[in-house]
């Protein structure tokens, strides 16, 4: 959409000088202004799938043509009302807030407009004025971009359930934006900079001392992640890609096919002997790449103490893939894996108790039996190129340590969740058309790299973390399992535990 002719007298954001703005106030629209993308449909679709699954996404997709017609030929407000109703009607407000905090930040952060951000970030006080529901956009804007004031459309609710309608003030477009801005800043306080991208932004822009328009230009590259104030390390939701209308349609069409495919993959993989699992997995359309080579004594037991494979944690089935690549049975341990997932596992599983002494005894017993143990010392999965802090327990109990770097590639669905049903994790992973694993075996630690050489268990754990991070080109962090679950779900990550409070800000 081109900038209207009436906006020709308004300078573009490219002409705005960002120097010396530290004490000034900026007010910006969201879609097409602070974000490169002009459509809010993908973000409604992310919420729809998270709170209502494939049926809610289908409902939104069917409503999208009507929303588009109303938006372009009747009013912007009418189109947005349709999207809000299709996404929110009958949904718990708490679920909407949870999805907005845990799901949307990842996708918003990948679409920040570079020129708008250059000016916006240079100002001391920041305000975003948007037609989108405030409940959707506020968590990302405040927690990740440091926005001070977020003004958006307010949704109505009854006894904690969204009705699908908007509050009495209506959708924040046109004059409603100017009214909301005047109420917030008062008649005597005038924002220094107003930034918009369309004709309906002009009313609020006229209230600002300086006005800039963001022209629609193809090929604009969003701001790099490392140039934003805070990286999105933890995020939730099942959809990998931002669902444009076309992508949403592909997801809906693929879902029944993927459902049949994932059931076949899960149960065939579960029943296949582990020595054949690698070949069967590949035949089922799940390419698996092995890099490096496990030490000889890991494949050919000499009756000595077992070997610990220390793995970077990507999905619940990491240990199964490591075992398949080894071609032999292993044992894996975990804090909280659903019973159904344990039932389906083709390898042995053992549950940790969170009692360090009891857990140490369990691990020692497994190793003393000469079994090969697969451990994920991060304690939980992380989707982004970061490694969480490694527990040092493995380093205290053995010097037979093999670091293993894991890379997982999916195109449609994430095989992990912090807030959803964990027993569905392997099913969502295998629902992807061609989910891929890359397993890299690093060199076994030499005696002088272990506690037997006098090193502390923390030093050994940190060293292994750094080895894996270097191999994957990831960054090491001190974040833990509790940090992730408290940020995304308001729990400590135990299966069946209900949130005791709202999710907290994600550590940066």
Automatic annotation (TrEMBL):
Keyword line: Acyltransferase, Membrane, Transferase, Transmembrane, Transmembrane helix
Keyword Transmembrane helix (UniProt): yes
Topological relation to the membrane, as annotated: Multi-pass membrane protein
Transmembrane segments: 43-71, 246-268
Start and end residues of each Phospholipid/glycerol acyltransferase domain: 307-409
Places the protein is found: Membrane
PANTHER family linked to this entry: ANCIENT UBIQUITOUS PROTEIN, PHOSPHOLIPID_GLYCEROL ACYLTRANSFERASE DOMAIN-CONTAINING PROTEIN
Family: Belongs to the GPAT/DAPAT family.
Designated name of the protein: Phospholipid/glycerol acyltransferase domain-containing protein
Superkingdom assignment: Eukaryota
